[in-house]
Design goal:
It is built from 15 helices and 16 strands. It is of the alpha/beta class. A hairpin with a 5-residue loop joins strand 8 and strand 9. Helix 2 runs antiparallel to helix 11, helix 7 packs parallel to helix 8 and helix 14 crosses helix 15. Bound molecules: 4'-deoxy-4'-aminopyridoxal-5'-phosphate (PMP). It comes from Lentilactobacillus diolivorans DSM 14421.
């Protein structure tokens, strides 16, 4: 058994000062019934906890680290940037450079604003959609997560699902009233909502590849229906690609499906491990943002030079060959996991799109949040802890996604598949 003594002590102390001992809820391992590991360092595809245990890491800071931990070029670029100061609150060339790079990779983002988190990106995109259309209602999908702003917490995924706080205490009822929710991939459901409220809807916001209830790809028909309905009703379509951007495919889910949203939100990979979010899209809509237009948006640290450097240094290293390699590794890993579960007679549904992957202890099919909820979360909790014992660090919830980085080797994949087999042995033996 691995020794977690130092992490245990550290958690005791952090719990004195922070609710749940953490700064973001799913980190706490509360739902899997354990204490979180405190991390000392990361290198490539591996992380090390403060007790000196080493793991192959598939959380990768919940997605941003597509180049793995402490990528040498990212580290060097950040070191150099720091010597020039950490923030100016005035324009820098770095912001335009990153904006150009983002536009090159995701061409529908003609104009954009940099912010400091995915939450800020989606919150601002929603305000912009409301300001642009002069309408209040928005549509989101059950089990999709778009950060923790008021309008978007309704029926959300991620920690909201993990900890079952769907009624979102603290969100004013009137705001929640303007958020209409529909089941994911429910074509008839969304048509009905538009029939009833089409001319009141400012926007539909969707994770084109859902990643906050495990990985669930939107169907082509579903996403095309969203595009058609919003166009007909003069409301806006927002693709929340905070997770799927640079991950489901190099050019995002919008390239994979060949569907062009009006606005896109980005985060995670776009900052390479530093706090960056982006909202952007059609020029005529983005021109509504202050100071050119009336919809207010601002940020003391928006476009921060260190954050821009983390993003640029990461995006500059991405290319088609790297994606080919990561996709092949993800494919190999998920096939190995399915085989391991089958060999142990454990019902499982394994999903992956690009570098995003997850497994549900559920015989499937898994196409929406109701399907995910049929998963065996007790088995998941035991299995997660068994995997840790075998040196594999995955997302500590059935309602989350795992990731692949460019630093994961063939050997890492083989070791991980062996660890899954060993963990199935352990859990089966009780
Ligand atoms: N949108 C999506 C699709 C996300 O996955 C997340 C975070 N997991 C967010 C928005 C919120 O981003 P952040 O945690 O950076 O605020």
């Amino acid at each position: 058994m691995l020794n977690f003594e130092k992490s245990k002590q550290a958690f005791k102390e952090s719990s004195q000062y922070m609710p749940g001992g953490v700064n973001s809820p799913v980190r706490a391992f509360k739902n899997v019934g354990g204490d979180p590991l405190f991390i000392e360092k990361g290198a490539g595809s591996h992380i090390f906890d403060i007790d000196g245990n080493e793991y192959i890491d598939y959380v990768l800071s919940w997605g941003p680290l597509i180049l793995g931990h402490a990528d040498p070029k990212v580290v060097k670029d950040l070191q150099d940037a720091t010597t020039r100061g950490t923030s100016y609150g005035a324009p820098t060339l770095l912001e335009t450079e990153l904006a150009k790079k983002i536009h090159e990779i995701v061409p529908s983002v003609e104009m954009m604003r940099m912010v400091s988190s995915g939450t800020e990106a989606t919150m601002s995109a929603i305000r912009l959609a409301r300001g642009y259309t002069h309408r209040d209602k928005i549509v989101k999908f059950v089990g999709n997560y778009h950060g923790h702003s008021d309008s978007l917490l309704v029926d959300a995924g991620s920690g909201v699902a993990t900890f079952n706080v769907h009624d979102a205490p603290g969100v004013p009822k009137d705001l929640a009233y303007d958020t209409l929710t529909v089941a994911y991939n429910d074509v008839a459901g969304i048509k009905n909502v538009f029939k009833a409220h089409g001319d009141e809807i400012a926007c539909v916001i969707v994770e084109p590849i859902a990643g906050n209830m495990g990985v669930i790809p939107g169907t082509k028909e579903f996403l095309q229906t969203l595009r058609d309905l919003t166009t007909e009703s003069h409301s806006l379509l927002i693709f929340d690609e905070v997770m799927s951007g640079f991950r489901a495919a190099y050019h995002g889910a919008q390239d994979l499906y060949q569907i062009k949203p009006d606005l896109t939100t980005l985060g995670k990979v776009v900052g390479g491990g530093l706090p960056v979010g982006v909202f952007g899209g059609r020029r005529d809509i983005m021109e509504y943002i202050t100071p050119d237009g009336p919809v207010y948006h601002a940020g003391t640290l928006s476009g921060n030079p260190l954050a821009m450097t983390g993003g640029l240094s990461t995006l500059e290293q991405l290319n088609d060959d790297l994606y080919k390699q990561m996709f092949a590794r993800t494919d190999e890993l998920t096939r190995g996991i399915k085989q391991a579960a089958d060999d142990h007679h454990v019902p499982v549904t394994v999903h992956h799109v690009g570098t995003m992957w997850s497994y549900f202890f559920n015989k499937g099919p898994v196409n929406n949040f109701a399907d995910v909820q049929k998963s065996d979360v007790d088995y998941f909790a035991k299995f997660f802890k068994a995997l840790l014992q075998h040196g594999v660090y995955t997302a500590p919830s059935q309602f989350e996604t795992n990731f692949m980085s460019s630093k994961h080797t063939k050997e890492d994949i083989q070791k991980t598949i062996a660890a899954f087999n060993a963990a199935f042995d352990d859990v089966s033996e009780g």
